Amino acid sequence: MTTHAGGNGASNQDAPPADAEEKPDSPLDLAPPTRKFILKNTVREFLDDECTDLAAGLTYYAVLSLFPAILALVSVLGLVGQSKQTTSMLMDILRGLGADQAVSTIQPVVEQLTRSQSAGLTLIIGLAVAFWSASGYINAFSRAMNRVYEVEEGRPIWKLRPVMLGITALVLVLVAITAIGLVISGPLAKTIGGVIGLSDVAVTVWGIAKWPVMLFIVIFIVAVLYHLTPNVKQPKFRWLSIGAVVAILTWVVVSVAFGFYVANFSNYNKTYGSLGGVIVFLLWIWLTNLALLFGAELDAEMERGRQLQAGIPAEESIQLPPRDTTKIDKDAKKEEKALVEARELREEAARSDET
Asked: What are the TM regions of this chain, as residue ranges (predicted)?
């Protein structure tokens, strides 16, 4: 059922519209056998697509993109005077998720970035470079999503790169909003509330309501990644993707469990010495990417299940039309040309042997 990257992109050009009316619109409309198939096939495709290896690749790009992304985020928040408070809050959140050793690894670097903020043209140039570097992870995630949806990348670089940069910008802005929302709490929230004339009740309500709001933003970020990065025209955008919800919940549970294991049973520090924190941090990012890929597989199999229940032949591949086939067509011509050259080389060698 799985066709790895490069084997199936062109065939989906004749796929039915992404919003075909015959497909069930709501997960509640899925029949019990369809739901069972979706759950089984999600696990099967997760293994067949070698998502553990994909997560390892994403971890590499995440590490390369992490500090440029932090620099960009801290730079933006520094413009409103929230960089130090945000850094402290983010580190506290990571500790709460059980990533104490990861915090010990990245906190000194983040604090150094916070202290070394530049201004003017230097800030703009540094922010642009950091922003470009941070988009590397989004590009890698796009390639992984193409594997999940069994489609080739058909968008040429001049179309693909701006889209990936736009997604990176959106993600960074949403993360910045989330970070600022987390910072505005406790005494700071009361101070701001007093300045703008909010009552103590309103400040208390904000202290409670901000958590589901922040969770919604995080789920929305994942839903955006799932919807926009693959080279397939998906059905209408869903603000709360089931795969995104499952990915976030899985990530929280796995992070807490991993933190508990590291704190109580592991001996990374004894085994790796000063590198123990780095190893733990890399494992945590890998687990995070595993959760994201599992959620992506669930969304993809939900779409396959909807198609199968509607009578659309999606047994071998998910029938969604590609966003663009320009690169696919160009690569096909290059491959055909290479085959012709190889054939001519073989035939020329055969004629030489005959003479």
From this structure: 58-81, 119-142, 163-188, 208-228, 240-263, 275-296
Angle between helices 200-228 and 242-264 (to 10 degrees): 110
User: Which of 101, 21, 70, 59 minimizes the C-alpha distance to 289?
Assistant: 59
Which one-letter DSSP state was computed for residue 323?
Answer: S
In angstroms, how far is CA 33 from the centroid of its own chain?
A: 30
Domain boundaries, the chain: 24-321, 325-355
The distance between the two most distant Cα atoms of the chain, rounded to a whole number of Å, is 98
- 311-337 confidence digits (pLDDT tens): 889 888 898 999 999 999 999 999 999
Asked if 108 and 22 count as a contact pair (C-beta separation under 8 A), the reply is: no
Whether the CB-CB separation of 255 and 100 falls below 8 Å is answered with: no
Question: Encoding tokens for residue 325?
Answer: 């086939």
Q: Higher-confidence residue: 12 or 25? A: 25
Q: What is the pTM of this model?
A: 0.80
